[in-house]
Design brief:
Elements lengths: L9 H23 L1 H24 L11 H10 L8 H15 L13 H12 L1 H4 L2 E2 L5 H9 L8 E2 L2 H11 L10 H18 L6 H20 L7 H5 L4 H8 L10 H21 L6 H18 L8
Antiparallel strand pairs: 1-2
Helix pairs in contact: 1-2, 1-9, 2-3, 2-4, 2-7, 3-4, 3-5, 4-5, 5-14, 9-12, 10-12, 10-13, 13-14
């Protein structure tokens, strides 16, 4: 059995989650280049600034910033958006996540929704063009600067994700190879190893990640049986999109997720089902953000009906 020293301090817990992201982020940098670093830097500056400003407005001590929650939210949002998105996308999204996803509810511990996913959903709905332009090439230091901070044409750099390619191919009746190992597969493997690290450090428990992955496997396999013309198999869904990032770093947010053991199993499993439904029949290629937010809303109900029975009653 893998064991590790429990992380009790909030600041240390957030840092451990950030450490767990390192391999996945390093692989993003390896494949996509300096745009990844610029987005993370912009998000960190914006997130910490927005947190400090609203702590001042609420007349709270800015020492709260030391809990590293704003930094984690900023990083999660930055690595979820395209590395070639204009600078104002990550600044606007991070500000929205901190202000409307966290501070207006009273700060860390009071937010019912995952702040990073709230910011991401806001950007995707408001700016679908900028949020669906991805690159498959490495951008150098100077190229990243030009793409993100200048008004140069990025159409030549943009390309569809594998989820988008799969959905389009199935809609058009074209042949699609789901076995191809591309950048997204390696990045998902990086976040998977990061999740193992979080298990080792006892930062997260097993219920939510495993039930989420089980929901993806069950629902994708079921759709393959009943509607193979519009569905991809479990292996493809497990290693494309934001599957592993969602499983270990987003769904496991201790504030907005279910708090009971049975509730965590229900919470993760239902999100997995929703992700596959959105990916298969929805307008957006990935569904992690929307599925997480929908189940965040249902957490009080899930917790109420999954409370363990008191001994003797």
């Amino acid at each position: 059995m893998i064991t590790g020293k429990p992380i009790l301090n909030t600041s240390n817990l957030m840092l451990q989650v950030i450490y767990g992201l390192i391999l996945g982020v390093a692989l993003q940098f390896y494949f996509f280049g300096w745009g990844v670093i610029y987005q993370i830097t912009l998000a960190l500056i914006t997130g910490i600034a927005a947190e400090i400003i609203f702590l001042k407005i609420r007349k709270k001590s800015i020492d709260v910033i030391k809990d590293n929650s704003a930094a984690l939210t900023a990083i999660l949002l930055a690595i979820s958006i395209p590395s070639i998105a204009p600078w104002w996308i990550v600044v606007l999204g991070t500000s929205f996540a901190i202000i409307f996803g966290k501070q207006l509810y009273g700060g860390l511990g009071s937010n019912p929704l995952n702040p990073a996913m709230l910011g991401y959903a806001f950007l995707l709905i408001s700016f679908p063009l900028e949020m669906t332009r991805w690159t498959s090439s490495f951008l150098s230091f100077g190229e990243g600067l030009n793409v993100i901070f200048s008004s140069i044409n990025i159409d030549a750099l943009s390309s569809a994700t594998r989820l988008e390619e799969a959905k389009f191919a199935l809609m058009e009746g074209e042949v699609f190879n789901p076995i191809q190992i591309d950048q997204t597969v390696w990045i998902n493997l990086g976040f998977l190893f990061g999740g193992v690290y979080l298990f080792y450090k006892k930062v997260i428990t097993w219920q939510i990640p495993l039930s989420f992955l089980a929901g993806i496997i069950v629902m994708s396999a079921l759709l393959m049986l009943v509607d193979s013309d519009h569905a991809m198999g479990p292996v493809f869904h497990l290693f494309h999109g934001a599957t592993m990032l969602g499983a270990f770093f987003i769904l496991t947010d201790p504030v907005s997720s279910s708090t009971t053991p049975r509730g965590r199993l229900i919470f993760g499993f239902l999100i997995g089902i929703l992700v596959i439904i959105i990916r298969t029949y929805g307008s957006y290629p990935d569904g992690v953000a929307f599925a997480v937010l929908l189940l965040n809303i249902a957490v009080p109900l899930i917790d109420y009906y999954s409370k363990p029975k008191v001994f003797g009653r």
